[in-house]
Amino acid sequence: MKKVSVVMCTYNGAPYLRQQLDTIINQTYPIFELIVQDDQSTDDTMAILEEYAARYPFMQIHRKPQRKGINDNFFTAMAYATGDYIALSDQDDIWELTKIEEQINAIGDNWICCHPSPSFKNNIFPSANMLDMRVPNYCLERMLFANNLMGHTMLLRYDFFCKIRDKISASLLPQLFDNLFYDTIFAVVANAYGKIRYLNRILTWHRRLEYSATLGEKRKDISKRTWINAVRLVLRNMDLKRRREITPLIHKRLHAIVLLLDCFPDAPCTENVRKMLDAYFCRKWYGGLFFLRELVKNRNKIFYAPEKNQFIATLRALLMPITMYDMYSIAYRYKKEGRPDA
Fold this sequence. Notes:
This protein is of the alpha/beta class and about 350 residues long. Helices cover about 45% and strands about 10% of the residues. The protein contains 14 helices and 10 strands. α1 (about 15-25) runs parallel beside α2 (about 45-55), α11 (about 270-280) packs antiparallel against α12 and α12 (about 285-295) crosses α13 (about 310-325). The longest helix has 23 residues, at about 240-260. It is globular, with a radius of gyration of 20 Å. The chain starts with a strand and ends in a 5-residue tail after the last helix.
């Protein structure tokens, strides 16, 4: 039987921590070890962890000497794992009890297995007709704009984590952490080798809190897909001051992806996305036209899910150089706040 190490990172998660720990401990697939690393919590998180560790000998607790944010917390916590696979966990989600069993059965020879993770808030779960069960675009082309593979859904091979840790130099890692979330790093590399398995089953319910590190901005005005909301989206992103402030973040993120891919020169699935990146960074007068051409060519890959109407898909692709600024507004807010999660 393959050994599964569950790695959880905590920070002031006391209100919901017990519920998540229980769903991990009671998995139908036996957990080899449960590794929890705390990022300098100031509430009762450590007391709860110590309570559980006293009851379950396969659980180990680590505490960071200094708070450095999500990326550093997960990468250093994963280094303690000794199992064949690593399952990543947030501190306040709810796992289906068959999560690990189903992912182990599905992963095959892939490096990552992910699944959908609907959000809930205040213990109110979305009804079946509210769930979006489309298989999202999780290809490398999509990764240039957003990551549809969330870390808290990932089961990954331990040797894949070791490959990333060994191939990325210690001097480069801080620059990557400054511009990419840890799960994006995993998803980009696994995609570059065509080693991702997406299991279209809800196995995690993702709790949304006001202080969640990945909580998006409220955009009720564009929550429905209408022509008037599309116009609002474009107009908002035509704000020149906002564009000047967000443009450096886009450059740095895409440059970080280039640097990440350069660490894996033997990856066989990067040619198409490198064309998109070369077109984006081209400073010739025709660079923008080349970038538009690549966006239109990849119009069924760059959005959350493929468009059924190809006219709309083409129109959205042509507008992407404008609307892509919306995707970076959360990162922009983090940078302004000086958050370690940025």
